[in-house]
Amino acid sequence: MHQRIVVGIGTLVLAGCVTMEDVSVRGTVFASPAGEVPLADATVILRDVRGKIYDRGRSDGDGEFVVAAPPASDIVAEVQAEGYASAAFAGVTGEDPVFKVPDGTLYALRDDERAAWEEDFAGCPGIGSGGAVLGEIRVRELTEPGSDVHAIVTAGSVELAMDSGESLSGCYLDDEGLGWQEGREVTGETGRFAIFGVPPGFGTLTVRYAYTPNTVVEDRTVVFLPDGGVSPWFPAWVSLPF
């Protein structure tokens, strides 16, 4: 597992089998990737990497939630809310009795925001069916001059290998970022990518980019796709090699 969990949900509603060895996973669900406005009345479901549900909870008026899971475990968190696409994030639980999910990690993606991505990538194979992996590639260790924004990868690529055996490649926008470009094999100035028509279940997302003419960086992370939902990668971080 590689990506932190990013979800926002509220009041505690415990379900399933919770043991004394579990830790309390606390966090806040936000109403957008910006991580500024909390989302109330959202459902957060924690699973292991085989799909078993550990626990589920509901966010309160401040977007805060509490669920239970084993410590130091690879998990996926799914966020569900009315008017939002079901979104899932991969992460690891802490080892403390109470583990706090960092703010800005969990969020929901509105139905109209997902529709906007589909409009931008109109023509990309798979749109209108199955789930979607949506994101942009940025380098964790580099920032753009005069800002705190991490550098965009303009010549990266993504591939999704589902545990079911299906392999899907990414779609990319043209150089101006105005629409999907058929036959393009790398990201452009926006660093954005999309994979549509993804079946539900687990898979591995591989992000690649050339660090030097002779060095290709690969970053692999487990992803989970709810049925017809999304796995948002805003951004899909990559790291510079040592």
The CATH architecture of the largest domain is Sandwich
Query: Into how many domains do the coordinates divide?
Result: 2
- Note the gap between the termini: 20 Å
Reported by name, the CATH topology of the largest domain is Immunoglobulin-like
| DSSP, total strands | 18
For the residues shown, what is the average pLDDT? 86
Identify the CATH class of the largest domain. Mainly Beta
- CATH level-4 homologous superfamily of the largest domain: Immunoglobulins
Instruction: Give me the secondary-structure category.
Output: mainly beta
Molecular structure report:
This protein is mainly beta. It folds into two domains: 23-107, Immunoglobulins (Immunoglobulin-like), CATH 2.60.40.10; 111-238, Immunoglobulin-like (Sandwich), CATH 2.60.40. It is built from one helix and 18 strands. Strands 10, 11, 14, 15 and 18 form a five-stranded mixed β-sheet that branches. A four-stranded antiparallel β-sheet has the order 3-2-5-7, with no helix packed on it. The two termini are 20 Å apart.
Topology of helices and strands:
Elements (H helix, E strand, L loop, with lengths): L22 E6 L14 E6 L4 E6 L5 E6 L4 E7 L3 E2 L1 E6 L5 E3 L8 E2 H10 L10 E13 L6 E3 L3 E7 L4 E3 L1 E2 L19 E7 L2 E12 L2 E11 L4 E9 L4
Parallel strand pairs: 1-8, 10-18
Antiparallel strand pairs: 1-4, 2-3, 2-5, 5-7, 6-9, 10-11, 10-15, 12-13, 12-16, 14-15, 16-17
Task: Name the features.
242 residues; mainly beta; Immunoglobulin-like; 2 domains; five-stranded mixed beta sheet; four-stranded antiparallel beta sheet; 1 helix; 18 strands; globular
